[in-house]
Amino acid sequence: MDRRSFIRKAGLGAAATAGASTLAAPMYAQGRRTLTMVTTWGRGLAGVHDSAQRVADSITEMTDGQITVDLKAAGELVGAFEVFDAVTSGQADMYHGADYYFVGQHPAYAFFTAVPFGMTAQELANWYYHDGGRDFHDELGQIFGLKSFLGGNTGAQSGGWFRKEIKSPEDFKGLRFRMPGLGGEALGKLGASVQNLPGAEVYQALASGALDGTEWIGPWADESAGFQEITKIYYTAGFHEPGAGLSVATNLEVFNSLTPSQQKIIEMAASECHQWNLAQFLTKNGQALQRLQAGGVQVMEFPSSVWDAFGKASAETMNAYMSDDIFKRVSESVQKSMESSSGWIQASEGVYRRERDRVMAAG
Predict the structure, then answer these.
(1) Which runs of consecutive H residues, i.e. helices, occur in the chain?
(2) Using only C-alpha atoms, what is the Rg of the chain?
């Protein structure tokens, strides 16, 4: 008997058994379905749109077409910052995006992308998959009618592009700078005029002079966006996104209407893309940084006084939200996990990296 015949006969047998039973089976939507995924990304934005497309394609392929995910880039159905409301209201079925864009809905969503002086990509994965992070994602989802998963990661993001060198914290006063999330709030405490623009709009704003500087992601995505055509001053390390996670969220009623295997496929497609996307960025960033430097870009680091100012402003920003019960519990969970996992990483991989670099440099 071939596999398809076996499955068909097994299904008929199961149906007969179910008919004789007094227990009601869960009701799942039948037949082929198309789910609309909206995103916070402009079509073709390096890495982030790739991540959304990979999740969409993986779900379609792994369900053998029982579910087709129709991806709509930012602006094709709703605007970049409207995807959360579109999915909670049922206008769309899923979104792929950076959850820190939705701190207006709840500030705790920031933790699932990045918070200032927060988790690296590995620390985020540790917390999310093994230290309670996913439970908090679900808790927020119950409030807003979403089922969410991590579905991408950019790795550590750069400090950004500037028209002039940053020599002290005072240089941020009046600076028109693009930075989303709680990192943007912290930068505002240094006197910057902080803007939150969708990625697809950043180049034009910088080129026109509407912005004095911007962060985006890292060398590969930044090079693809063309920021090096406008300014050559580039800070490669930032305080605001040390390991930015991306999320896949499905309308909870839609998610619950799927079969358990289809639900698991969404989870697995998101999880696979999280690791795939991180490796994509880390692989391409080094190569892009070399090209940027060869093209005259000045790679710089913020002085210690600026880092100290970032730290003070970040602490003030985070403390302002501690009166919210969920935010406080998530923050405490993150801090505990970060201290635990980073301790081992420093004692093992940290020592190895240091000694590897020393040995290799010695020849």
Answers:
(1) 3-20, 48-62, 83-89, 121-130, 133-144, 181-188, 202-208, 219-225, 252-257, 260-294, 304-319, 325-345, 351-362
(2) 23
Give CA–CA dist 62/69, Å, rounded: 11
Close Cβ partners of 80 (under 8 Å, ≥ 6 residues apart): 39, 40, 41, 42, 74, 97, 101, 198, 199, 200
Contact by Cβ (8 Å): 237, 159:
yes
Reduce the DSSP state of residue 255 to 3 states and report it: helix
Dig out the tokens for 85 from the structure.
Answer: 């409301």
Q: In what order do the strands lie in the sheet with 94-97?
A: 67-72, 33-39, 94-97, 245-251, 146-153
The single residue listed with the structure tokens 């499905």 is 250
Instruction: Identify the pLDDT of residue 3.
Output: 33
DSSP state, residue 131? S
Q: Which residues of the chain register pLDDT less than 50?
A: 1-23, 25
Question: Which pLDDT score is estimated for 28?
Answer: 66
Please report the pLDDT score of residue 363 as a whole number.
81
What pLDDT does residue 214 have?
A: 98
pLDDT of residue 17: 39
Residue 307 tokens, joined: 């880092």
Residue 193, CA atoms < 13 Å, CB-side half-sphere: 6
pLDDT of residue 31: 79
Query: Which of left, alpha, beta for 73 (phi over 0: left; psi -120 to 50: alpha)?
Result: beta
Q: Is the pTM of this model over 0.85?
A: yes
Residue 137 near residue 264, CB atoms below 8 Å:
no
Is residue 247 within 8 Å of residue 149, measured between CB atoms?
Answer: yes
Query: Which of 145, 152, 151, 150 minimizes the C-alpha distance to 84?
Result: 145
The pLDDT, as a whole number, for residue 10 is 37
The answer to whether the beta carbons of residues 90 and 32 sit under 8 Å apart is no
3-state helix, strand, coil in the chain (%, to 5): 55, 15, 30
User: Within the chain, what is the greatest distance between any pair of CA atoms?
Assistant: 77
